Amino acid sequence: MKVNNLMAELERKHPGESEYLQAVREVLESIEEIYNDHPEFERAKIVERMVEPDRIITFRVTWVDDSGQIQTNLGYRVQFNSAIGPYKGGIRFHAAVNQSMLKFLGFEQTFKNALTTLPMGGAKGGSDFSPKGKSDAEIMRFCQAFMLELWNNIGPDTDVPAGDVGVGGREIGYMYGMYKKLAREYNTGVLTGKGLTWGGSLIRPEATGFGALYFTEHMLRHAGKSIKDKTVAISGFGNVAWGAAQKATELGAKVIAISGPDGVIYNPNGMTAEKIDYMLELRASNRDIVAPFAERFPDSEFIAGKKAWSIKCDIALPCAFQNELNGDDARELLAGGTWCVAEVSNMGCTPEAIETFQKAGILFAPGKAVNAGGVATSGLEMTQNAQHLSWSAEEVDKKLHYIMSQIHSSCVRFGEQPDGTINYVKGANVAGFMKVAQAMLEQGVI
Ligand code: 2IT
Fold it and tell me: Measured between alpha carbons, how far is residue 50 from residues 53, 287, 428 in Å?
C-alpha cells in the first residue's frame, strides 16, 4: 500500500470531501508500515475496503416551524463498518453537516469503537438542521421528522445512534419517543444517551469528559507528571466541555478557560459547582454563546472573538469541533508554555497543529483515544438495556476508568518509539486498525 497513490484515487472518487480525506490520510500514514508487513491484508484489499462506508442512507427531513413555514433539511446515516459489531455512533445536528463530515466521523468512529474493547462497529449520522435559536417545540418536531425516516434502518443489533454536537438528552428523548411509536416496541437498546427513567445509564452524560480526563491522567502519569494544580484551557461549553471541566476540577486542576463561537471566557479562579452547572443552562438556551457566563460570574472575563488557545495554560483540551485548533493556535499555545494537548473533540486539531506539537515534543493524544469514553459508556448502556437492569454510578464509572486505562495501554503498546516516548496518534490508529482488519480478514470478502 502506498498512501499517496491511495489518496490520489480517493480524491478522484470523492472530490471536495476534505474532512473525510483528512481523516483517512491520518490513519493511512500511521498504519502504512505495519500494513506493509502483513501481505495478507494487501491480498484481501483491506484498506481499499475499509476506507469506504458499507452504505450511506440519505433522506429529506421536512417539518413545520413555529411560524407555520415548511422547512426542509438533509438527513444522513453513514453505516461505516460492522466488522466487530453492530453500527454504533452519534448523530450531529449542525448547520455545517454534510456527507464529508459524517464520513470522516464514521471512519474515526470505527477505530475508536475498536479501541474501547467493546463489540461495536462504526457509524455516524446527522442533519444540517441547526438547533441555534430554535424553540423546544421546533426541536421536537424536527427530531420526530428525522426519526420518521431513520427508524427502519436502526435497531439494538443493527445500528445504535446516540448524541453528538447538537444532540443531547432532550433530542434523544424526542427521537426515542417517535421510534417507539413507529416500531411498536419498547426497544431501549436502539439509542443510547437516554434519560435515566427510561433505559439511560448513569454517568453517560459525563462519560466523554470524564473518560478524557482519565486518559489524560494516564498519559501524564506515564510521563512522570501529575494533573494536580495545573492550568487547563477547554474549548466549547457543551456536554463534552462540561464533563471535562467537572473532572479536571475534581482532580485538582484549575480550568481557566471555556469558549464558544462568540469568544472565550477567561476564568482565572477556576471552576465551582455553580459555574459547572451554569454551563448546562447555557447549552439548553439554544443561543450558542458563552458571553453570559461572565455576566453571571464577575470573577471571569469575556473576550470577544478569541479562542481558548489565546489563554496561557499547561494543558489544552479541545472539546468543540473538528479543526478547531490550527497551526497558528498550536504555535500560540507552545509560546505560552503548554506542554500537553489532549484532543477531546473528534479531529479537533489540523494536521499542521499535530505536526507542530509532535515536533515540539510535547504530550499529544488524538480524539479517537481520548474521547472514546463516551461511546464506551454507550456500550455499557447497551449492555444494561440487554440485561434489563441498571448499574450504580460507581459501577459504570469504575468500568469507564478501566476501559480508558486499557485504551492508554494499547496506545503505549503500538505507539512506543525507540527513544521511549509514545506516539499516541500512531498507537491509537494502529491498535484500532489491527482489530478491525483482523476481523474483516476472518469474515471473508463481503
Ligand atoms: O463521537 C462520539 O464518539 C460520540 N458522539 C458518541 C457516540 C456514541 O455512540 O455514544
Answer: 7, 39, 16
| 52 vs 47: CA distance, rounded Å | 9
Atom of ligand 1 nearest to the CA of 164: 5
CA of 165 to the centre of ligand 1 (A): 10
Give the domains, in start order, of the chain with CATH numbers.
53-184 (3.40.50.10860), 207-370 (3.40.50.720)
Q: Does ligand 1 lie within 6 Å of residue 121's CB atom?
A: no
Choosing from 88, 103, 112, 124, the catalytic residue is: 124
Nearest protein CA to atom 3 of ligand 1, as residue: 375
Distance, CA of 267 to CA of 57 (rounded, Å): 43
Using a cut of 0.85, tell me whether the model's pTM lies above it: yes
- In order along its 446 residues, the chain shows pLDDT tens digits of 899 999 999 999 999 999 999 999 999 999 999 999 999 999 999 999 999 999 999 999 999 999 999 999 999 999 999 999 999 999 999 999 999 999 999 999 999 999 999 999 999 999 999 999 999 999 999 999 999 999 999 999 999 999 999 999 999 999 999 999 999 999 999 999 999 999 999 999 999 999 999 999 999 999 999 999 999 999 999 999 999 999 999 999 999 999 999 999 999 999 999 999 999 999 989 999 999 999 999 999 999 999 999 999 999 999 999 999 999 999 999 999 999 999 999 999 999 999 999 999 999 999 999 999 999 999 999 999 999 999 999 999 999 999 999 999 999 999 999 999 999 999 999 999 999 999 999 999 99
Query: 330 in ligand 1 pocket by Cβ < 6 Å?
Result: no
Q: What residues have CB less than 8 Å from 255, skipping those under 6 apart?
A: 232, 233, 234, 245, 248, 249, 267, 270, 271
